[in-house]
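Long-time lurker. I teach an intro course on protein structure, and each term I like to show students one example going from raw sequence to a predicted 3D structure in token notation. This year I'd like something fresh instead of my usual example. Would anyone be willing to generate the tokens for the chain below so I can use it in lecture? Attribution to the forum is fine with me.
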Amino acid sequence: MTIDGTALPSELLVIPQPLIGFCGLDIARQVVHKSIWDAFSGTLQRKPADRERDRAAVQYKLLPPNYDFPVAKPKRVSYEWYHPKGILKRNWMLKHLHVLPSVVVLFQDIEWNDSQWTEKQVQCAAIVQALKNALQERNTRLCLVLLQKSAPLPPGEDMLAAERAASLTTACGITSKMLFILPHTEHLMGYTLRLESAFLDMAQSYYALMSKRIRTHRDQLSAAHTSLKIRHQFKLGFVAEMRQDFSTAQKHYLQAYANLDEIRINDGNCMEIKTVAGFLNYKMCRLMFKLKIPRDSINQFIVHVDKYKSRVGFKDLAFEHHAWLSTQHSIFAELFCEAIKNGLPALQIQHPGIYYQKAAEYVIKRREAAKQASETLLSSSLNPTDASQSQANLYTEFFGIRAVKTGDPVAEQQMNMQLCELERNYNHSAAIIALLSQAMAQFKIYKCLRFRKKLAIDMAEEYLLSGDHAKALTLYSLMLPDYRDEKWSTIFSDVLLKTLRCALLSASVADYVACSIEALSLRHHGEQKERVLLLENLWQVFQSVPPMPQTQLTPELQALWGNALSTVKSPIQIDLDKVRDVLELCATFQQVQLNNHDVLQLHLIVRVLTDVPLRIRNFQVLLADANNPQNSYKLEALKYMCFANLLQLRQSQQAERLELKTYEKNMRLEPGCYYQLLCSTEAHQFNENTQLRIVRLEAHMGTDKIAALLTCSANYTRQPFRHHTRSRDLDDNVTINPICYIAPTFHLSTQTNLGHGVNDAPVSITASGTTISTTTMLVNEYYPVVSTISNPYNVYLQNVGLHISVPVELRNSVFLTTDVSTGRQKLHSQIQIDVGELSAHGSNTATFYIFSLVEADIKLQQRLSYTLDVDRSAAGGSVAAAVSQSTTPNSSETTPEHVKVIGSSLAAISPVQIEYLDETRLRKSREDTLSVKCVADFKFSARFYTLNRRPLTQVYRGENFLLRANTEVLAVDDVEILDSFFICDHNLVQSNYSFKRKKYTNKYRAGDQLESVIVLRTNAALQDWLTARDLERAKSEDGATNKFMSRQQKTASSGNIGDPPPLTATAAAGGFMSKSLMAKIPTSMTIISNSAALQPMSGSMQSDDGKLSLSGAEESAVLPASGQDAPKSMRIIFNKALEAVQATGHHRGFIKGVYTLDAAQSSTIPKFGVFCIRWRRPGVKEENESKFIISGLDIAEPPLNIYCTIEEKMFVKMPMAFKVVLKNPTTHVLHLITTLAISKSDNFICSGHKQLDVSIMAYDEKELVYNLYPLQVGWQELPVLTLEYNTKADPQKNDSQNVLLDELVQRALPKRVFVLVSVEL
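-- Reply from a regular --
Happy to contribute to a lecture. Here you go:
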């Protein structure tokens, strides 16, 4: 029980639950009783979450055998003359929560068939009667539970149980509803839950009757009994909480709180009124949070505090009023936190931290009021009271009423003195720190960081007041960087001085040194004499002397400082990037780039920013490799110059000779002056191709015993506000170079000759190499490149190699090779040429060829490398000392942004790369770009025509047609065309006339044109075209089938063998070639043509320069990979057109591999073949091939094939044969009527059937032979042959189908011939 009037009692803070008492259970000796108790109390195999979910809110109490129940008070008949001494009694809540149960349950071990039934029945009846006597005039419910070993039988079946149960209830004087059976079997938990429900119903009836009795007493009260009304309303609310009726409870508490306003408050009853009001407010706020009305709860608390905030009471006991306010805020904050855990959202402007912070403020006021009251009361002439006097003597049995006689000034004074004495023993600082820590946690959760910092400062001040200087120093040190960054100068100065004081009182040497140095800044609000004193104390610490005279230090503090100074770790690191405005450091390289034999010089500019002089022991600069930060070097400044202002410093940059002074240890640096210190070392101490970066600047301050290491990063930050004159900003007067590049030496030079021919003009050879071009590169040409590699230095070079690679964006169209001999034209995407060894001033040549399919500006990536013997033992000298990474502060671990930008720009100064193979050998490589412009060689176009020279849009199976190939020379230089030929697909047939190669002997220039005519025929439609697999399978089949079965089998099996679509002849070969490539078997893959797209023919039969495409082969399988391992997995491509054809005849066969630049090539367009042109440059042996894909047309099934045979030469008055062959390509019989009509001019005399009925069987043919006798010379019109269906023999045919026959005749038969003069004439 809490008797202090400034704190809420524990019985008020708990949630009221019905109290049920258990009698007759011996849990210490009976295992069964122990299991039953555990089952009811919820500890038997049950988790708290499960209990809260499916168990009722009930409190069980195990009653001893001789338990003393509270004696009932005599009932009052009337309250007319009753005047209570207080409002709420202290023991009422305790009595109903823990002492007086609502239900008493008696457990007895009795079986229905027990042999001692009579004796146990008499014993049970006696115990029940004793409980009734103890609970006399109480409404406590009583019930009996029989513990049995077996489960009871259903009602009506066990007659013995029914008989003995009736006998037992009669003997005990209870009803049958008060008797229960509890079998202790494996289903004990289920029986327990059923009994618990019955017990809870009894408890509810008990508390309902109790509420009714209290309500009856309340109704008897008059207007004069205000305190009794409040008491009865509180009881009704409390009992309603026991019944879990929270809405009713909240109403009763609210009514009781309203009744408090009817009592007049004075100094005598002020404490009691506030105590009861605090109880009621706590109950109301808690219930409002539980009822999900948090806004009402917050408003109620605000109104409550505003109402009683000014009710102080006795002025001498004002601390008691502040303690009450603090308790109200802290308790409400706890309620707020509990509601948030249950799902209530909070805001930055309304959260528990606000109330915790307010509670801490009232505790501070409580301490001040207690101090003032102690000075007032304890300084009187009265004797001080005994502080050990029991607090129980200070209060009565009512809350908020002290045990003092009213109207006795002496007793009241004595009581006040006793309270003051107790208050002096209270630890206010601990309470304040606890509340502030809770408030900080809440402010952190709700992102109120700035207010959290303020609370941390308040907590540090409390630690400082309480004497815990170490914790105060920790908090101040944590908050100091925040206020430093936010530039709150006033707050920062106050916090800094308090931190310095805590460091002094806790003997923290490192913190004292850091705070003393930072306090020297002009940002600290103080006078110069104070900074001088700080500097003197700082140097005393450097000399291992406490900072204050011994007369001003306590013995304990002197001992602390002695131990701290003897164990301090020196040097003490201080980051000047955080501790600013004390010392300004800036470093810059004198030159941005140096050679390996130069001297590296670095300038360090120092300025003291405070108004007191500083003594610095030495300055050092830490350098690191920008690519390998783990390699670091430290340089010490040995020379210096002093300048009064920036103008003199800027003028010194232009002077040729300057007088440098030697820097001495602990030299005095005056405020306001600029000191330029010089650091120098040999550049050969560092690795070549290295970017040296200034990482950190260091200044040592102190003595050999104790020193401070002032460090800052090399990142120079420009001021946010620039001055209007150049004499104020450092970067306007000094060029700051944070990076210096150590350029490497490359020992090779190159001269590159492009094209055929030799240039006799003198060429200058430089380190970067020269390029000479004699001819322009053409598409499909093996363009030679000759590189002369020279060593102009007195060194011996090994493993000299030249690596050339094609850019990624051109690797589909540009290739490289080193061998162009016949049969070995293998193309690569990158090549490696091993030059070997080069002695001093030696040279060698490397030749390779470029092959391109497109017109483009080719930029090859050329890398020249070699190995060299070196000695790395000389790296790093005595001046540039290696530095361990562990000494690098955190501020310098990250590279500044502007330094990164400069580093990336300096990386392009030299393309030389250095790789150390071991301690004695290194490899140097340089990457260059070789630019070659490639122009077009030929422009090719192809057109299809019928035999009578008409443009062709569709080809019929079995029809002869013409291919006219036109070529225009686009080469800027003269070329020699050796020959040209056409390779057709296996499903096409060339005439013998087409096999005659045209020989070319003249040189051709740009604009010259050539033409070739080829006669072609296809015997199958596109869906019936054969593939290479079909041909091989047909050869392997045993036996021959007739032409009917072969065509049907071909059609039926075309979709079942898994071949690619037969629309292109290369589709099947594409997948096969892809597998070959992946298996590193580069067989017969051909690169043909140079166009950038392959498009179907237009209506004018114009074909772009096409090229073969490798269908199904991925680019990764054709192109070589990049990197050092590329030559091992190099993919090669052959470039001879005939090598890509699986020949099945002369210039006829299956194209194995097709490679194209057009990834979106349509697969529905057939490819009829490849047109090749072999050419070379004049006077050059290397031959080249330009190859063009001939995109075909759609092939349809014709109703009739017509072939015409006529003599090549016709002479006048000499007979000649005119033969027409009609072939039936269908499975039906054709019935035709043929008519031969002679022109009116009678140019010919004709013999033969002028009109004939013809019937042609399926797949059969019919020949029509006519003898023509020319009568005139020159172009003559031939007789016209017409065909039409015989509708009488074949009624399914009609006249509309004769149009197609007429079209076939017009396409196949010539109209005119040229008749020559007879030789005899």
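Some talking points for your students: Residues 936-1025+1070-1196 form one domain. The chain is about 30% helix and 25% strand.
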